[in-house]
Amino acid sequence: MDLFQKGNFISHAGLPLKWKIECDAISDKEWETLAFIISEMSMPFSKVMGIPRGGVKLANALNKYVQPTGLPMVVDDVYTTGTSFKDFVHKEFPGTWIGSYSIQKWCIFARRMPQWGIKALFTMPGL
Hints:
By secondary structure, the protein is of the alpha/beta class.
């Protein structure tokens, strides 16, 4: 399976895409390394929650870095429009604004510059 795939796809927000990043191609060992990198770059976090389905493997890999204190962390694999982050934060943290800095937000890849304080390990120039 290839990490980068050309074709016709639909994003979580319903946008047509001509290519996608297929994170199922990332090995468990690579998820562990990506989680380590995020743990080194983030503030301490008290829990980590993965946005289904893409963020679950990353959250599982990050669980070993949870500390007793710190802000909660929400993670996903790929950021395209931020819709999945907005939906997840509104569901799991009712009344919390997506741009709030009371939650850390991370992804591996961003297809464009992320908004609302979301951080990405790798950011592409735009859609």
